[in-house]
């Protein structure tokens, strides 16, 4: 407000190097504060002056200049675009080739803040020739430089298969895969994130990541003391498993499903989410893979998540995963029903505090319907007769109408537990599917018992 930015601008061209460095640092701190400050720095015409003599400057100035560019770029795509337009990327590439690791780190950081916004800005970073140099940076001995370079490769890869392919073509996967065993937790986070962002786009890219022999090493990350290493490790496994039955089978054969189940049981909150999704993706592919999740005792931890977690999106994911496990055959649905998760799913559906997204996933459209349409295990269905709303009741009654005509023991139990009595109390539209189900059930009994 006092016009300091305009007073600082001519000092960027001062003959004394220490003044130029200190001015750049001051501008960086101003721009870093909020988007309005960053816009003021750009509008004052600082950027061209900041970078005009960058190649000839010393390492301290280069670090300070990279800090200014990063501080401006982080706030919005528009500000990042302003940096691209003033020709800063070419100057940052020169910094990536600098001998000093601190200068490389500053440039990597700036590239990351530019690339993370969208595919267009990420492509501009690629076109400037930054990717091969970033791959060289992850091979440097300095841990801080490795972290930032891996993070920037992750930010470039995330937007599209083409951008991820550029990172792969520069030879990044092999070097990233080797660093999964590095003891530095912050580096492991970034490495796992970068591999996840590459693997998520397509089967081919996921297979390239798997071919770098990340299994079974990546499973050790699920036991790491750092929560983000756990989460990013589970995310990487999820991004591989989701593509094809073959990749899911590879994860199962490597012990991945058992490790993910252990991970879900040992943590809380959003750290659980990628693991929950992994089980859902694996189970969705085929009957055999779903049975692999069941055999590895995956149902119980998912049921626990429904009860323990407070965030709706985590409950929704657990409900979805259970639906994927139970939807294949009567045997799969029986395993889910025996684990006593159906009443919990129903409670979530009828709870007025549940979000609409969660209700949809736990409702007839998703988990409950998937499981109920296959479930012939009547002891688990019977409690739902007394609690389910009409849209769920239809599927419950439907399953009874399928089983009772062929099972005399079940017919006797259905009377003694009050199930048949409950059916008589249901008001169904004449001619509706529900009325047909009720008629089928009533036809299993003599008229006087129905009366």
Automatic annotation (TrEMBL):
Question: Highest taxon of the source?
Answer: Eukaryota
SUPFAM superfamilies (alphabetical): ARM repeat
Pfam families with a match to the protein in the record:
Arm
GO BP terms, alphabetized: epithelial cilium movement involved in extracellular fluid movement; filopodium assembly; neuron projection extension; sperm axoneme assembly
Locate the coiled-coil region(s) and give their ranges: none
Query: What's an example GO cellular component term for this entry?
Result: sperm principal piece
* InterPro entries for this protein: ARM-like, ARM-type_fold, Armadillo
Which GO molecular function annotation, any one, does this entry have?
A: microtubule binding
PANTHER family, alphabetized: SPERM-ASSOCIATED ANTIGEN 6, SPERM-ASSOCIATED ANTIGEN 6 ARMADILLO REPEAT-CONTAINING
Protein name according to UniProt: SPAG6 protein
Species of provenance: Tychaedon coryphoeus
Q: Which gene encodes it?
A: Spag6
